[in-house]
Amino acid sequence: MSVDKAAPQRVLGLFGLAMINIVAIASLRDLPQMASYGIGSIFFYLLAALIFFFPVSLVAAELATAWPERGGVYVWVKEAFGVRWGFVAVFLQWFQNLCWFPVVLTFGAASLAFAVAPDDSTELAENKYFIVAVVLVVYWVSVFLNFRGLSGSARISILGAFAGIVFPGLLLITLAGIGLASGAPSSLLENGDRLIPDMSQFSNITFAVSVWLAFAGMEMTAAHAREVRSPQRNYPLGILISAVVSLIVFVLGALSISTALGPGEYQLQSGVTEALRAMLARYDLEGWARLAALGMALGVFGSVNAWVVGPSKGMLASAEDGALPAALCKVNQNNVPTRILLLQGGIVTLLCVAFTLQPTVASAYFMISVLTIQMYLCMYLMMFAAALRLRRNHPERKGSFRVPGGQPGLYLVCGIGGLGGLFAIVLGFFPPSQLAKTGMNSSAFIIFLGIGLAAGLLIPLCIAYARRLR
């Protein structure tokens, strides 16, 4: 087995860790979906933060500091339930990540289209072949850049955080604030005038399930716990900083888009650039929208760069335990699992080809988004269950951070997060009425989601059975 057992260098400080978390989570890509609810988006974001985001963050901080070994969620679930279920958990994290890459890069491609050809950006954003070409080029460049190791990857992620989140996010929020203060027309209440939306309409609130995915990923940097300087202090603090920043960006960003664009005036994959263009046009500064769009495209590149290696290290840890063939365990001189990265690159390429078979980019974008949510939520349910068992069976493993409230506090946090995840999984099977115009068939959506979720669970279980994992 060709595995580098050398101790990794401590290359990540508090700032770099927080920036990797922010760029991996606080993307602007999901804001247009939530902007369609107007002030109701506040309710959905706060609800998701309370019943999902903060439970995940607290549990991940405790597990990552008590079990800082490479592998993250794989190590936690393996220690709690055995190698078989650890492999299932990390496979779900890894495979949903592969489905997520085309989704997030579609947003980046739409932003790039606006930056280079604003007059033709709407057509390009719905051109499946343009989208797939950009997705594949950017993804494979990111794969080969990550061969150089985490130090270079962290720099790209920090650049992406500022170019794709901080700059366009602040510009979006500032312009909306100036517009409201100066009495410019606002579509905020047209998009939604209820602080608590109508929760009885499942088909109308399915869109809001995507907010769970917007907050997902806080556990991802646990895969880098051994590369963090002073992890007992920096890891929990980095999570806290990124959690607060992400929530602020999400709430204010969605409200800003709602003020600029009315219902039906924007596409899911290009709503941010369209809102910026509309607000900057008030001051004859449309050119700045192109600069912001270029920044968002760079931000997506940074986000993908932050995610390419993380889940693959979990798969490497499982491969070292015999879950996968020994050939996949090979790492290069930078301790990067190159063969696993090449394997996932091939799968992403196949997914992108399937992307072109959907009637529109918007329908493919949403269908794959929901599938990634479902698989990710299944993994989180396993993570919460593992946290409860590990606290009970290994009280001696005490990291620098523990969920407040002792054993009852952990049960409360895991219970809230688990019930929130189950609710989102059920809700995800109700096709949204808002997507009827994309040509998406409701029955096809449910079948696709059911088959995809079943495959995500059955494939690792079959591999585990074949490899005689316990």
Q: Note the run of SSEs as H and E.
A: HHHHHHHHHHHHHHHHHH
Beta fraction:
under 5%
Low-confidence stretches: 1-7
User: What would you give as the CATH superfamily?
Assistant: Amino acid/polyamine transporter I
Query: Any idea what the radius of gyration is?
Result: 21 Å
Determine the N-to-C terminus distance: 21 Å
Mean pLDDT: 79
Architecture, according to CATH?
Up-down Bundle
Kindly identify the CATH topology.
Amino acid/polyamine transporter I
- CATH structural class: Mainly Alpha
Approximately how much helix is present in the residues? over 70%
Secondary structure: number of strands: 0
> Largest sheet at a glance?
none
Give the helix tally: 18
The backbone outline, from C-alpha atoms, is globular
Number of domains: 1
Structural class: mainly alpha
What would your notes on this structure say?
- This protein is mainly α and 470 residues long.
- It has a single domain (14-466), classed as Amino acid/polyamine transporter I, CATH 1.20.1740.
- It has 18 helices and no strands.
- α3 (40-66) runs antiparallel to α12 (231-260).
Question: What structural keywords apply?
Answer:
470 residues; mainly alpha; Amino acid/polyamine transporter I; globular; disordered N terminus
